[in-house]
C-alpha cells in the first residue's frame, strides 16, 4: 500500500503536478492557437508585445523567461510571418527592438477568443482560476528569488 505522505511518490510531487498541468494546458491551447496561426510560444510573445510594443529582445526574454538562443529563432519566424519587425538600436548595435506590424496588432482581435475557450476547458470557475493564477504567481516569485 502506498504511503500518501511518502515524499518520493510521483503523485506527491508539486513539480510533477505543475509539469503535467502545463503540458495538458498547452495541448488545450494548441488547436485554439492554430486557428489564428500561432504556436504557444509565439502566442506568449504576442501577449507580451500587445501589452508593451517596442521592447528589446532582452526585455522580452526576461518577461517570458526565455534566453536569446530560444527567443531569436522564434522572433525570426514571427518576422517572416509579418507579425513583427526587429530593428537594431541606432545608438547601441547590441540592442534589438521588437515592433508589432499592423498585421501583428490586428491579430489581437482574433486572439481574444482564446482565453475564454481555454478557461472553459479547465472545468474550473473564473474565481477558482483567478485564485490559482495568484497562487502560481506567488510561487513563481518565490522561485525567482
Descriptive account of the structure:
- 65% of the residues lie in helices and 8% in strands.
- With 145 residues, the protein is mostly helical.
- It has a single domain (10-144), classed as Winged helix-like DNA-binding domain superfamily/Winged helix DNA-binding domain (Arc Repressor Mutant, subunit A, Orthogonal Bundle).
- It has a 3-stranded antiparallel β-sheet with strand order 1-3-2.
- A hairpin with a 7-residue loop joins strand 2 and strand 3.
- The N and C termini lie far apart (38 Å).
Q: In CATH, what is the homologous superfamily?
A: Winged helix-like DNA-binding domain superfamily/Winged helix DNA-binding domain
Mean pLDDT over the residues: 95
The CATH topology annotation reads as: Arc Repressor Mutant, subunit A
The computed structural class is mainly alpha
Biggest beta sheet summary: 3 strands, antiparallel
What is the number of independent domains?
1
The residue ranges in which pLDDT falls below 50 over 5 or more consecutive positions are: none
Examine the secondary-structure arrangement and name the CATH architecture: Orthogonal Bundle
- The end-to-end distance, rounded to whole angstroms, is 38 Å
Strand content: 5-15%
* Relative helix content: 55-70%
Radius of gyration from the alpha-carbon trace, in angstroms: 18 Å
User: In sequence order, what are the helices and strands, one letter per element?
Assistant: HHEHHEEHHH
Q: How many helical elements?
A: 7
